[in-house]
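From the methods appendix. Each design record in this collection lists the tokenized structure first, followed by the designed amino acid sequence. Records were kept in a plain field format so they could be parsed without special tools. The example shown here is representative of the layout used throughout.

RECORD:
FOLD TOKENS (209 positions):
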């Protein structure tokens, strides 16, 4: 399945960095109280991060009542990173007057569904191979189609396509002036991902949903 099998190469090429350490023991206040990050004039709330984590736990088979102390800090930052990346991709598309509409998403899903043997099989493959929950399939395709469009007609996994995508996302991330709650790290516009703010860390404490 071409589209789903290339997503990992796309993300690797984009350099989406997830830091090895977790919550800063100290540090500056977040841009707005209750926000995990502020991207442009939009807030990514703690509630949104928890909702993303809930979907990931469901995909991974985690029990609903699992203790918050067992939450892997990297998983929390991965959720924040992905939510920010979605907005960066949207900004890059807008700057280039590109869109991904529902009909394109539907066509891509239908094509992959035929390739793998049905909608149920596609959903299972996305769940197992990509960690995509049932409610996140459209978002998955929207992101991947958006990345492909940012390549400007070039192969998004090739050197030229990678460079074009990378520039688009760096420009968009820089223009958005992304501010991140220091417990999750700092947005590195050049690397297009979260990086650590400190070597001192404490386990992330996320309330289970």
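DESIGN:
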């Amino acid at each position: 399945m071409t589209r789903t099998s290339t997503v990992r190469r796309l993300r690797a090429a984009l350099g989406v960095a997830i830091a090895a350490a977790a919550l800063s023991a100290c540090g500056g206040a977040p841009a707005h109280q209750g926000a995990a990050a502020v991207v442009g004039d939009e807030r990514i709330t703690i509630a949104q991060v928890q909702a993303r984590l809930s979907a990931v736990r469901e995909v991974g088979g985690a029990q609903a009542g699992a203790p918050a102390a067992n939450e892997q800090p990297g998983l929390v930052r991965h959720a924040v990173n992905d939510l920010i990346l979605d907005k960066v991709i949207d900004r890059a598309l807008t700057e280039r007057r590109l869109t991904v509409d529902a009909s394109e998403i539907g066509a891509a899903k239908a094509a992959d569904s035929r390739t793998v043997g049905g909608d149920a099989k596609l959903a299972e493959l996305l769940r197992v191979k990509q960690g995509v929950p049932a409610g996140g399939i459209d978002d998955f395709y929207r992101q991947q189609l958006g990345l492909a469009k940012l390549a400007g007609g070039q192969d998004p996994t090739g050197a030229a396509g990678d460079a074009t995508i990378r520039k688009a996302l760096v420009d968009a991330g820089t223009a958005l002036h992304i501010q991140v709650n220091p417990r999750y790290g700092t947005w590195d516009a050049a690397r297009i991902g979260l990086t650590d703010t400190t070597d001192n860390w404490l386990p992330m404490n996320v309330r289970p949903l």
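APPENDIX NOTE: The beta strands are 35-39, 42-45, 179-180, 186-188, 193-195.
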